[in-house]
Amino acid sequence: MSEYLGFPIIRPRRLRRTSALRDLIRETKLNRSDLVYPIFVDERAQKPIPIESMPEYFRLPIQYVIKEVRQVIDLNIKALILFGVPFKKDEIGSQAFATDGVIQRTVRELKREFGDRIVIITDVCLCEYTTHGHCGIVKEGEVDNDSTLKILQKVAVSQAQAGVDIVAPSAMMDGQVKAIREALDDSGFNHTSIMAYSAKYASCFYGPFREAAESKPEFGDRKSYQMDYGNSNEALREVELDIREGADIVMVKPALPYLDLIYRVKAKFEVPVAAYNVSGEYAMVKATAQKGWIDEKSAILEILTGIKRAGADLIITYFAKDVGQWLD
Ligand code: PBG
Predict the structure, then answer these.
(1) d(CA 284, CA 54)
(2) Is this model's pTM higher than 0.85 or not?
(3) Which residue, 39, 153, 185, 242, could crosslink 196 as a Cys pair with Cβ 3.0–4.6 Å?
(4) Minimum CA distance residue for ligand 1 atom 5
(5) Which residues 6+ apart lie within 8 Å of 288 measured at CB?
(6) 197 C-alpha vs ligand 1 centroid, how far in Å?
(7) Cα 157–chain centre separation
(8) CA–CA separation, 1 vs 189, rounded Å?
(9) Which phi and psi angles does 190 have, rounded to 5°?
(10) For 288-310, how does the pLDDT look when each residue is reduced to its tens digit (9 = 90+)?
(11) Residues lining ligand 1, CB < 6 A?
C-alpha cells in the first residue's frame, strides 16, 4: 500500500519556524555580485544635479564619478553602467563617438584609477546625443536602421578604445549586435564583450530616465523600434537573433512587467541573462515609500529577489548601492 504523504505527516511550516531555518533553505539569495549600478555623467554639470523624478539620484560631473565609484567599490559592487549627457547635441549624435566625449573621458579616468577592479559597461545608443532625441538617424521623419548601424559601430569602437569592458547596445536597430561585433573585431577589440538589450520594450517606465538623460524624443515615440508589450514570442526571437549575432549577455527590459520573459529566456538559452530594473520602477518604489505606503527596504529586497528568482543572472538597478549597504 502506498504511503499517504500529506498532512499531518508533512508540514511545510516546520522549515519556516525560525529565521535561521528560513535562511538555511532559502532558494534565491541576492548577492552584491548580481548587481550593476547605473551612473549618469553630465558634461555640463559643475556639481551633482538632482533628478526630480528619481529621488536621491543625481547626474554627476565627471570629476565626481571617481568618488562615487570608490563608494561603489567599497560596498563590494563590481559593475557599473554609464550613461552620458553631452555638452552639445546634434542630428547624428556625434558626441556619442567622439574620442573626448563625456563617456570616453569618464571610462579612461575610471580605468586609470580602478583598472580591472570594476567592470565598466557603456550604453551604445544615440538618444542622449541627438537633438531630436531618437535612438538613431532620422531620415524623412523615420528612424533609419542601416545608417544608424554605422554610427553605432563608431560609438562602440570609441568606447572600446577608451577601455570599456562591455558595450551595451540599446538602440533596438536590427542587426546592431552583428554590426558592432564586426566593428570591434576589425579594430582589434575581440575581447570586448557585448551585452545586448535584446528584448527592450517600448515602455512608459523609462520616463524618469528620459528626464535624467534628457533623451525624450522630440516627435513621435519609440514604438517603431522598441517592442510591443503584448508580445513575448517575438522577444525570444530577438534574443535568439542577438545570440547568433554574437551577444555575450542578453537583456530583458524593463524587469517587473516582464518577469515571464526573464523566465522564458533563462529557460531557453545558455547565455547569461540581464534584467534592467528601470527608472520608472525605481520611481514607483521611492514615491510610495515617501508617502509611507510601503516600507522601502523591504520592497526593494522583495522586488530584486523576485527578478533574480525569475531567472536574471545580473540586475541593473538604481538601488544597487542601497542593497550593497544592507546585505551581510
Ligand atoms: C536608451 C536607454 C533608455 C534606457 C536605457 N537606455 C531609454 C529609452 O529607451 O528611452 C532606460 C533606462 C531606464 O528607464 O532606467 N539609451
Answers:
(1) 9
(2) yes
(3) 242
(4) 170
(5) 294, 299
(6) 10
(7) 20
(8) 66
(9) -70, -10
(10) 999 999 999 999 999 999 999 99
(11) 123, 125, 127, 170, 206, 209-210, 215, 222, 278-279
